[in-house]
Specification:
The complex is a heterodimer of chains A (308) and B (264). Chain A is mainly alpha-helical and 308 residues long. Helices cover 70% and strands 7% of the residues of chain A. Chain A is built from ten helices and five strands. The longest helix of chain A has 32 residues. The mean pLDDT of chain A is 86. In chain B, the strands form three sheets. A six-stranded mixed sheet of chain B has the order 2-12-11-4-7-8. A four-stranded antiparallel sheet of chain B has the order 1-3-10-9, covered by helices on one side. In chain B, strands 5-6 form a two-stranded antiparallel ribbon. In chain B, helix 6 packs across helix 7. Classes of the chains: A mainly alpha (308), B alpha+beta (264). Strand 5 of chain A pairs antiparallel with strand 5 of chain B. Chain A: It is found in: Cell membrane; Membrane.
Chain lengths: 308, 264
């Protein structure tokens, strides 16, 4: 069954889109990641224009992050004050990101930059995850107890000025690195269509030393607002949010995520993480190949749409 | 049939009155072209897979002897809405294919469907066709703010035409125009499957022995209908509301999922 995507301006098989959404949703439920960093490249492989894939990806992340954030809010594992400071940086970053996005689009370099950023991001994240899971597997094989790394309590980040007290997180921290982190993630959200949790969570834990229990909820809080903001700004500046595509993806995604959570609770983490790492690396490699292989046609046409 | 006969009669009667004495003045020809379509608006749904559009027309004030020798040629073009189009070419930099050079053509039709009595290239000489701007090879492609020496102009123009033709936006049908009586003709132009929304122009050209002598144009509104077009219109015309609605839909979906699948 085909469905016409009004903004991407092409007909797609609805079951392939549902399958993509469900598979990525399943993985995101299993590993507790947002999944935006897999959805966007998959859409690009399925010939959805990168402009649309990125903007629609951001919209889809709103849906996949809401339920998680709600449950963290109910459990009280969400620091609204810290989240708001992150959000200030995030919104500023997203605004700058959209500006870069539009500039790259008018220069005809947007597709290239999106692909390059994904190759770098997926390559790095995939490699780190793979190394980490191999270490964990070795430890398990050697029957060593898995020890949580607990490095020194303070680093350079804690010597910065403009400190603020975050009661819920029980920390006293400068707002500069928090706003800066939000800013960087905001740029990624608008250019790549990702929530950015997979970067934000480790950065909050290892760099900012925020207690682990509030990290996920707080990052989800910021992701919801930044992706929502990005969706609206993409819709008004680049007209590139495809609501039909986004809706199919989010319905399949939220259902897939529920099953992913259940399966994830039963299975052992190390092998799964190694598998996800390999998948992430494979997606990155495929994008890298597309950049290098001689294109079918080296010429392309874009209509400006000024008289639309 | 009676109407056709009547029209022919009228046309036939008109000939002796007008005559062909003004042969030497190229700007003044006795022949006139008339065309008609059954509608000035077509509504198409999003599952549209292309269709033929039939245009009827007549040559008025023709010369019967020239007509008998098939000296008259008719070219009918359906031109889509115009927009600036940028052609880009990729080059390899450090192993990666990167868009390097580009050229923007000013207000070219998004779609172009051509139908003629015979291959356009044989109807008139290239300078004539270029002057009229009829034929895929002769559409006006003028670069915006172009100051180069013109060496790569041909390259980009050729690429533009090739991409438009391979994408099905530009089509031609030599033999799509047929005379159904002495001066009455029927032209069949193809509406491509991905026909752009907006005001198109049906433009008919009359050539006599390689000389362009008359032209007639009619507007044709192509209106896409259905839910997909409504969404597309909303995205472009009420983009803020559209974006806000997209976000609301996502919030609702996420919230519903958390309610439906709640375990406690």
């Amino acid at each position: 069954m085909t469905v016409y995507l009004p903004i991407a301006e092409l007909s797609v098989n609805i079951f392939i889109i549902l399958g993509m959404g469900a598979a990525v949703g399943f993985l995101s439920g299993m590993f507790g990641v947002g999944g935006g960093f897999l959805i966007t490249p998959l859409l690009i492989f399925y010939n959805i224009p990168p402009v649309v894939a990125v903007a629609t990806g951001a919209n889809q992340v709103v849906a996949s992050s809401i339920s998680g954030a709600l449950s963290h809010f109910r459990r009280g594992t969400l620091d609204v004050k810290l989240g708001t400071v992150l959000l200030v940086g995030g919104l500023a970053g997203a605004t700058v990101g959209i500006w870069i996005f539009s500039l790259l689009r008018s220069l005809g370099q947007l597709d290239l930059v999106i692909s390059l950023l994904y190759v770098v991001l997926l390559g790095t994240v995939g490699t780190l995850m793979l190394l980490e899971s191999i270490r964990a597997l070795r430890r398990a094989a050697a029957n060593q107890p898995v020890s949580l790394r607990r490095p020194g309590q303070h680093n350079w980040v804690h010597r910065l000025p403009l400190k603020m007290r975050f009661k819920k997180s029980k920390i006293y921290l400068s707002v500069i690195p928090v706003v800066g982190l939000g800013f960087g993630i905001g740029i990624l959200t608008s250019i790549m269509g990702v929530g950015g949790g997979f970067i934000m969570v480790p950065a909050m834990i290892y760099l900012l030393r925020i207690p682990t229990n509030v990290v996920v909820g707080t990052s989800l809080f910021q992701i919801i607002f930044v992706t929502a903001y990005t969706t609206v700004v993409q819709a008004t500046t680049n007209y590139s949010v495809d609501i039909v595509l986004a809706f199919i993806l989010m319905v399949a995604g939220v259902i897939g995520a529920q099953y992913g959570v259940r399966v994830g609770q039963k299975l052992r983490g190390e092998q799964l993480r190694a598998l996800l790492a390999l998948l992430v690396l494979a997606v990155g490699a495929r994008l890298a190949v597309d950049l290098v292989v001689t294109p079918e046609d080296i010429y392309s046409i874009v209509s400006e749409g000024v008289y639309r | 049939m009676r109407a056709v006969a009547a029209l022919c009669l009228v046309v036939g009667l008109a000939v002796p009155a007008l005559g062909w004495a003004q042969e030497d003045k190229p700007a003044e020809f006795p022949e006139k072209l008339e065309i008609g379509i059954s509608t000035d608006e077509i509504a198409i749904s999003s599952d549209f897979r292309g269709a033929d559009l039939t245009i009827f027309g007549a040559i008025e004030g023709y010369d019967p002897s020239l007509l008998a020798q098939s000296k008259y040629d008719i070219v009918v073009a359906l031109e889509g809405p115009k927009d600036n189009n940028t052609v880009r070419v990729k080059e390899r930099i450090f192993g990666i294919w990167v868009n390097r050079r580009s050229m923007t053509f000013e207000l070219v039709p998004e779609s172009y469907s051509l139908s003629s009595t015979r291959d356009v290239e044989t109807i008139a000489a290239p300078p004539v066709l270029n002057g009229v701007g009829v034929g895929i090879q002769h559409i006006r492609l003028s670069p915006v703010g172009y100051l180069g020496d013109g060496s790569n102009l041909t390259e980009f123009r050729d690429a533009f035409r090739r991409l438009k033709e391979s994408g099905g936006f530009y089509q031609r049908d030599p033999g799509g125009v047929q005379f159904i009586s002495a001066s009455l003709f029927k032209a069949t132009v193809k509406l491509p499957a991905n026909v752009p929304n907006g005001t198109h122009v049906v433009r008919a050209h009359l050539f006599r022995d390689g000389v362009f002598i008359a032209e007639k144009a009619l507007p044709l509104r192509v209106m896409k209908t259905g839910i997909e077009q409504m969404i597309s219109n909303a995205a472009y015309n009420q983009s803020f509301a559209y974006g806000a609605f997209s976000v609301m839909l996502a919030v609702l979906t996420g919230w519903l999922a958390s309610v439906v699948f709640r375990k406690d």
